[in-house]
Structure formats: C-alpha cells, structure tokens
Automatic annotation (TrEMBL):
Stretches that traverse the bilayer: 12-35
The entry's keywords: Membrane, Transferase, Transmembrane, Transmembrane helix
Occurrences of domain Bacterial sugar transferase (ranges): 9-191
Full protein name: Sugar transferase
Organism: Pontibacillus salipaludis
Family per record: Belongs to the bacterial sugar transferase family.
Length: 201
C-alpha cells in the first residue's frame, strides 16, 4: 500500500508542478523583473541542501535578501522582517511564501516533492547528514517538500529538534490523503505570515 501511495505521490508531483509552472508563469516573470530592478544580484537563490537519504542538491528560490546575506549580520538566523538584509521585494515574497515557487523545478527533477520535510542546509542544525542522531535521520527517508506538515503547523516557531519530530510524524503516517490535506492547508496559510521567522529556541 505504501508503494502505491509513493507512486501516486510522484505522479501528483510531476503533473502538479508542470501545471503549476504553466499557470503561474506570468507571476514568475513579474517577480523576476521586480527582483532584478529593485536590487543588485541574481533573480534566483541557489543553496546546497540535504535531500532524501542525505543526498546534497541545490534548492532554487527567488532571492529575498542581499547577496551573501548568510555571511553578514546574524548569518542563517532571520529574527524578524526588519532584518536589513531582506530586500523590499523579498519582504513581500517571504510573507506570502512566493519565494518558494521556483522549487517546482526541483520537484520536476525528482529532488523534491510537493509535500515532505523541509530540506535543511548542509551545515545546520547538524554539520552533514552523518552527524544527525539516528532518530533524526528518519526525516530523510523521503524526498523533502516545498511544503509539509511542519510548515502548516509549527513552521519556524519551535526548535529544530521539535520540527524534526513533526517531520518524523509525517513519515510515520504518510499517505496521499495526508499530502492532499497538507496542500490544502498550505493554500489557506499562503497569505498568513505567522511563524515565518526563526524562534530563539
């Protein structure tokens, strides 16, 4: 049964991403132009992330911060929307999660799924897949997602280990119906900006 659910999940990923890219292509073009004319730097932000079984891939997002933002200020931590590394356009994209749209290309490539645990950077919260505790590696048993159970529940309001526990819960209870519920909840939450910034925990 799980194998069938995984097959249906991949089919939904491919069809959903292709249809999504076609439908939102005008939005992608507009956002790209706004980013380019409002700040110096590339339109897209690429970053090494950990995917299924700890494999490294490059995630694609719209750039919402100044170039090399990770090397300035608070590094990976973005405490609130007043962080001066965030561009004016980026502030809107983050609040609406529109910066995530280019990840549909990662989904088509098979590096991500529409629904799954969020892919962490290679060096945080643990340095490399091999340094994750055994219990936490469960979250890497499936492709990471553009959205997921963590994003529609706790988002960034809790510590990383607490988020990993939510991810593990998703892995344990995965089925296509759960994915559809998460996708629907994501749509409802799209224009709500609660919990988008990192907790102090």
């Amino acid at each position: 049964m799980k194998g069938l659910n995984l097959m249906i999940k991949r089919l939904i990923d491919i069809l959903g991403s292709i249809i999504g890219i076609i439908l939102i292509s005008p939005i992608i073009i507009i956002i790209s132009i706004l980013i380019k004319v409002s700040s110096s730097g590339p339109v897209f932000f690429r970053q090494r992330r950990l995917g299924k079984n700890g494999q490294v891939f490059k995630i694609i997002k719209f750039r919402t911060m100044i170039v090399d933002a990770e090397k300035k200020g608070d590094g990976l931590t973005v405490k609130n929307e007043s962080d001066n590394r965030i561009t004016n356009v980026g502030r809107f994209l983050r609040a609406t999660s529109l910066d995530e749209l280019p990840q549909l290309f990662n989904v088509i490539r098979g590096q991500m799924s529409l629904v799954g645990p969020r892919p962490p950077v290679t060096y945080f919260p643990y340095k490399g897949y091999e340094n994750y505790p055994h219990w936490a590696k469960k979250r890497f048993m499936m492709n990471p997602g553009v959205t997921g159970l963590t994003q529609v529940t706790v988002r960034n309001s809790v510590s990383w280990n607490e988020r990993i526990e939510v991810d593990n819960n998703y892995i344990d209870n995965f089925n296509v119906v759960l994915d559809i519920k998460i996708l629907l909840r994501t749509i409802f939450k799209l224009f709500k900006n609660e919990n988008i910034y990192m907790s102090k925990k």
